[in-house]
Amino acid sequence: MTFYDPAVIPDPKDWLGLDDHDRMRVVRTYHQSARINVRNIKAHSALHTIIENQVATGFGPTKRALLRLQTQGLSRHEAIHAVGSVLATQSRQAMTSASNEENGIVQARINAAIESITAKDWMTPSV
Questions:
Q1: What stretches of the chain show up as alpha helix (H) in DSSP?
Q2: Are 98 and 58 spatial neighbours (Cβ–Cβ below 8 Å)?
Q3: Residues in the chain with pLDDT < 50?
Q4: CA-to-CA distance for 8 and 6, rounded, in angstroms?
Q5: What is the pTM of this model?
Q6: Handedness of CA 105, 110, 111, 112 (dihedral sign)
Q7: Are 32 and 4 in contact (CB under 8 A)?
């Protein structure tokens, strides 16, 4: 696999056949070729890679969220950003939390947040 387009679901076998470095490279190359400017291309590529890894491995919450968000009018690329945003926010909260919650509890909260994101949530600017 030498080309990535977030509008198209990568073939899971081809995607998972790459190592994470190469996955991030094809994501970065797509954004650069499309002249999409992002604040931190490394972090942005990592989130795309995580979301695509989850889709390729059949992770239910992410697969359902992408489908739901696209049904609600987002492009697949926008849906990846929406789910990535939830994942980043929830992960940041888990890392900065003073509690010592078990991994299963943290993962359940992340899954619930992914399952509940809507296109309206994503498109409505936060105050």
A1: 12-16, 20-33, 41-56, 60-71, 76-96, 103-116, 119-123
A2: no
A3: 127
A4: 5
A5: 0.89
A6: positive
A7: no
